[in-house]
Design a protein that fits this description.
- This protein has 320 residues and is of the alpha/beta class.
- The chain folds into two domains: 116 residues, NAD(P)-binding Rossmann-like Domain (Rossmann fold), CATH 3.40.50.720; 176 residues, 3-Layer(aba) Sandwich (Rossmann fold).
- Helices cover 33% and strands 15% of the residues.
- The protein is built from eleven helices and twelve strands.
- The strands form two sheets. The chain has a seven-stranded parallel sheet with strand order 8-7-6-9-10-11-12, sandwiched between helices. It has a five-stranded parallel sheet with strand order 2-1-3-4-5.
- It is globular, with a radius of gyration of 21 Å.
- The relative contact order is 0.16.
- 2-keto-D-gluconic acid (8YV) binds next to loops.
- The site of 2-keto-D-gluconic acid (8YV) has 8 residues, from loops.
- It comes from Ectobacillus funiculus.
């Protein structure tokens, strides 16, 4: 039986790659840098599957350049880079990787909050500089955590916060049915902004959420507030965040995602002392990334053989 023609926009984990090689003839971009768009479109001319390792933009242009494409798999839970409606219209199922990255991303998100609150990273920098002195932070115990986007990852963060004695409130576009059992109280966005001691943003990037944290929102927060973003950079107006931190409208920010991303070393945010930034490592553990790649490979191979994807975003799609 001839092998499926598949394009990988970057290298993936060995276990997943071996799975793909069993059934696929692959073209894989090994760098340097991101796969050039014209090269990708050329490779897609006869491709049946696309394994999207980075967040390559999948739009009408790409789909039109890939007439034989039968499935797209991406190793991420977020898919703001994918025109899902166009994929559905073109009969191309798209699979992401929810579920497998929840605990790792929640660990990193809560770790950012804890490091910011207790200045863990500042303490380490002082020790390295030969300055053995106290760095004061703030208690999380007894404080109110406001989760914006209480989904699977948000719930896992709330679980961690509850274990640290925090009170949990949240705001979603729609209330979660079992929120009280999770010990999370649904409030309006405004009430969350004005009453939270710590705010964690975990909403997917969409036309609704883009720029949802801007000057107006930061001005409503407590001047002692800690703000954490582990969703997507463009959910936050970067200039408004810089101004809020620089003017002490809020106490501290901890980000795993930025806009722009990657954030350049000379960006004004990096000149501030009340911020901590990590390079989009929410799901970056060996175990979790391997699981994500394996799930993405399962999605790809299912789509190539005309079977339902284990985690399909556009389940209404009529396969080609
Ligand atoms: C990245 C993420 O995708 O899953 C997501 O939506 O943002 C992260 O897990 C991961 O870093 C792979 O690029």
């Amino acid at each position: 039986m001839s092998k499926y023609k598949v394009v990988l926009t970057g290298t993936t984990w060995p276990e997943a790659y071996e799975k793909l090689l069993e059934q696929c003839e692959v073209k894989v971009w090994e760098g340097p840098g991101p796969l050039p768009r014209d090269q990708l479109l050329d490779w897609l001319a006869d491709a049946e599957g696309l394994f999207n390792v980075g967040h390559v933009k999948v739009d009408e242009e790409l789909l039109d350049a890939a007439p034989n494409l039968r499935v797209i798999a991406q190793s991420s839970v977020g898919y703001d880079n994918i025109d899902v409606e166009a994929c559905t219209r073109k009969g191309v199922p798209f699979g992401n990787t929810p579920g497998v990255l929840v605990e790792a991303t929640a660990d990193l998100t809560f770790g950012l909050l804890l490091s910011a609150a207790r200045r863990i990273h500042e303490g380490w920098e002082l020790v390295k500089a030969g300055q053995w002195r106290t760095v004061y932070g703030t208690d999380l115990y007894g404080k109110t955590l406001g989760v914006v986007g209480l989904g699977d990852i948000g719930s896992a963060v709330a679980r961690r916060a509850k274990a640290c004695g925090m009170n949990i409130i949240y705001h979603n576009r729609t209330r979660r049915p079992n929120d009280e059992q999770e010990g999370a109280t649904y409030v309006s966005f405004d009430e969350l902004l004005t009453t939270s001691d710590c705010i964690v943003c975990l909403v997917p990037l969409s036309n609704h959420s883009r720029g949802m944290f801007s000057k107006e929102q930061f001005n409503k927060m407590k001047p002692t507030a800690y703000f954490v973003n582990a969703s997507r950079g463009p959910v936050v107006d970067t200039q408004a965040l810089y101004d809020a931190l620089q003017q002490n409208k809020i106490a501290y920010a901890a980000l795993d995602v930025t806009d722009p991303e990657p954030i350049p070393a000379d960006h004004p945010l990096l000149s501030l002392s009340n911020i901590l930034i990590t390079p989009h490592i929410g799901s970056a553990t060996y175990e979790t990334r391997n699981s994500m790649a394996n799930l993405a490979a399962e999605n790809l191979l299912a789509g190539l053989s005309g079977k339902p994807l284990p985690t399909c975003v556009n389940q209404s799609v009529n396969y080609k």
